[in-house]
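Milestone M4 deliverable, item 7.
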Amino acid sequence: MLSWLVVGVGDITRKRVLPAILAESRSRLAGIVTRDPAKAEPYGVKSWSDLASALAESDATAVYIATPVFMHAAQTIEALRAGRHVLCEKPMALNYAEALAMQRASEDTRRTLGIAYYRRMYPKVDRARELMEAGVIGRPVFAEATAHDWFNPLGTSRAWLADPKQSGGGPLRDTGSHRIDLMNYLFGKPINAIGRMSTLVQPLEVEDNATVTIEYEGGVRGVVDVRWHSRVVRDEFRVRGTDGEIDLSPLNGPELVHPGGVERIAAPENLHYPCVEDFVSAIVRGILPRSYGESALAAEWVMEQVTP
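Output delivered:
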């Protein structure tokens, strides 16, 4: 049984993280850290206003970090050093150096660090890997992902996303990190990355668009393009090989098109549940979760290469 302390109660926490923990049969909610105690009241558990007190007074064995990105590194390291396992929201940190410090803390304390790149757990992603390994598209050589939407967080509860000191950047770190991580998951070690970003339309301090090109050790080249200034919504993910193509577009939908036909493999209703379930299984079995600190470092490394 894993006893959870959840830090931060925003939209994702209320809609996905807390329901996932409450639904996971080997988990129990031990407490919540929030500046607003009223947010914890519906869950019937003790709350604290600061992490240090919660770590000292709770019996939690795992901590879910769901605060804005600028808090991830310090809170993760504090929890690891207090002997807790940690599952942290993405992106891992503000930059590669912070992320590396988190991973080193995990190694030093011998506690597990997971990162909530939940798209690694999509059943259709598993199926796409299976098809590629079976050679249905020959040798994979090129992959492309786009995440386009019209988004301006100013004046909303997510306004911190527009503050580079709190978020580290705009769509590159918000939606781009997911796609970069998924390419790393599918194609292995990135060995080179270049990119461009700019602020063209939205009146923000962070970029409103970014394009990244990644070269992989095995020869695959990936391109990730993310934008907050498109009134046409796109959520594309394709892998091209020497003999064909696998199309997972829209990435968040059930469709999977490949040379053998069309399949529909829906993701779970709560996208965070498989991530929480996988993390608990990893702790119980003494293995790494599917998305762990060292694996997530690769996405931070890529983003570091293209950030001015």
